[in-house]
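Its record is set out here:
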Amino acid sequence: MKKLFTTLSNIWKIQELKERILFTLMILVIYRVVCQVVLPGVDPAQLVDTQKTGILGLLDMFAGGAFSKVSIVALGVMPYISASIVVQLLGIAVPSFQKMQKEGESGRKKLTQYTRYLTVFITAIQAIGYVKTQIKPEAILIDLTTFYVMSGFVLTAGTLFVMWLGEKITDKGIGNGTSLIIMVGIIARLPIALQQEISSKFSGNDGGLIMIVLEIVALLAVVMFTILIVQGVRKVPVQYAKRIVGNRQVGGVRQYIPLKVNAAGVMPIIFAQALMFIPNALIGFFPERLTDSWLHQYTDITSLTYSLTFAFLIIAFTFFYTAITVNPTQMADDMKKNGGFIPGIKPGLATSSFIDDVISKITFPGSLFLAIIAILPSFAVKLGIQQEFAQFFGGTSLLILVGVVLDTLQQIESYLLMRHYDGLMKTGRVTGRTGIPAAGTTSSPI
């Protein structure tokens, strides 16, 4: 406990870090306040039965409840994330975007601008679908046409405002702004979910306090398992040859390339969930024609069909995303240019093949573990845990929480170490997603 208070005291002594933390907290408070503002023209009293379950419940969790409350920021930052993913994929497939990625700061500004334009387009489309499918006509107090047009503009402006808040946190705060906004939205649902779970366990013969304690222990175990997956790396040793530069000898040291077990991060789950949303969207647009359709199996996240399909898509997307973001050939070329080589492996093509083989071997178990984490909420519901609380036992929400916390703690620790204070841990250092990536890798939007 003394170590904790000493660390907090050291954090408060660093003026820049203190200002960044306070600024971040202020922006997050503003975001949570805005989440409570209902769309103009909507009767809040008619929104009692609009709590979302299933797949829509996941969207509501990412938006911190704003989705079900019909808030002016109901769509949250998800359109911005979708736009970021599209631009990132274009940077891999389209030569002109590849060129912009290599232009440094000017190219980054162009890509950011394109991402913002695409965010407006995606938000406008999603806003129309949202107001038509998620808001009951009896809850609308004004003319429908006027409401739809006005809501489209308001929801688009709300998403752009949240995007701007995220960028401000990234620039002047601590951590990744977009990730922190999503994390705060997820955490905001935890007290309600925990209250519902406690009420359900004490209202019947479901074990009471003993079951609550066992569930908390199981949740901590799942969190620890997720941290192991997020932090797991395969260290490939690299030896750098000795060189004489002027009157100095450089090189001759051994380093390593940290190839992550889960190099794709949370992106495979996001891609897979995007596809799993399609059946629900089709049923929403054609409810009469698809009343008894087999697509209804994919609207229940606890069904075996949903879980197996979801797991298969995650494994497939993990290999796909790792293949397009981790470039063994580029890594081998960069290593060769800098006079580095893997002991026992010839530089060039042999090194590229070796790295590709290592990535393939660690990606398969990584994808399996990722799939297990993703479908754990389904098993939790089957074991009697309330669906709201079960979402914290795995899936995208847990991966985002773990990744963002590690990322933020790493940035705080870097400030401490730069000022010659002790880090956050007695032994070792906090390593998060913002560590120096292997050559040829790219960071994910979140």
User: Anything to note?
Assistant: The beta strands are 233-240, 243-245, 248-250, 254-260, 340-341. Residues 433-444 have pLDDT under 50 and may be disordered.
